[in-house]
Amino acid sequence: MPKQVVDLPVGGYGDHETEFKALFDSLNSRLQNLIFDEVVTPAASAEAASTGQFCAIMVLGHSDRVDTPGLTSEQRRADELAASTSRAESARDWLFDQIAELVVAQGGVVPADISSLQSVSLATAACGSADLIHLTPSSPDERAENRRVHFFVSTFSPGSP
Questions:
Q1: β-strand pairing of 4-11 with 148-156
Q2: Fewest CB within a 10 Å sphere: which of 50, 102, 125, 134?
Q3: Which of 87, 95, 158 is CA-nearest to residue 121?
Q4: Rounded distance between C-alpha atoms, residue 63 and residue 128, angstroms
Q5: Arithmetic mean of pLDDT over the chain
Q6: CA nearest 126: which of 35, 57, 40, 63?
Q7: What is the pairing mode between strands 54-61 and 148-156?
Q8: Residues 6 or more apart from 139 whose CB is under 8 A from it?
């Protein structure tokens, strides 16, 4: 299997929303299918197969700027970091559940938890509002685009170019 790298942002969270399943359920079917094809399926295939395939996924959580009056800059940053952490962890947990379902459907045995995966690595990082798409959002839609998770997926076999 040749090495493959995927970079897939998924945005549209509402203000203070962090549950990835709710976001996923609200997405159009084209984007849902893309997430399954580019993120879930490669991970499940690597975990279910004994072919030496591996999959590493980094989930980055992002937040919009918090503009709540009366908060200090430290409180704003803490709120942004908390939201982005929750988004990344929720997406990772949803992803593990999807991988588990596909592995079982393929006749495999699912590890008890994320750290027990044999051929898949799932990690998260919180970005807060450090990487805004819209620096000065002018609409609720632009704010929702800032609130997102970002999947970085690398699939590979040892020794592949």
A1: antiparallel
A2: 50
A3: 95
A4: 5
A5: 92
A6: 63
A7: antiparallel
A8: none
